[in-house]
Amino acid sequence: MVETLEQYAAGGGLVIGAGVGGTVATLFGQDGFALIAGFGAAGGLLVGAMAGRYATGARNRANWRYAVVAFTLALSFLVGSVLGVLTGWMLDSSLLDAGVAGAVAGGVFAVLLTAILLRTGHTQ
Q: Which of 35, 40, 74, 90 is deepest in the core (most CB within 10 A)?
């Protein structure tokens, strides 16, 4: 059964991912705004669902907050950089610059999603 924390994480990840992707597209002046925002939404949903599932399982441990922060940050960096490179390849842009931009976007996303996970996990 899907827990409430997992639902908040997946839903929040979808929305935050689209917002962060759109912001990155605007800041870097890319033509493919819809593509980048779509990749942000897809990556946000993926990371949100996985981080929510991890947070639900880790809540019984003593230092679950640190584990959730580390897991979400690492996964967001990984997914962000992969999606950044993929976006750079699709838009004929520099792969290194796109990968770095994706990793930075993943870090911003991780901070926002971690706030949702920790606050929701604390109230349950």
A: 40
Q: Is there a contact between 64 and 55 (Cβ–Cβ < 8 Å)?
A: yes
The string of pLDDT tens digits covering residues 12-64 is 999 999 999 999 888 888 778 888 999 999 999 999 999 999 988 888 888 88
Taking the C-alpha atoms of residue 105 and residue 58, their distance in angstroms, rounded to an integer, is: 25
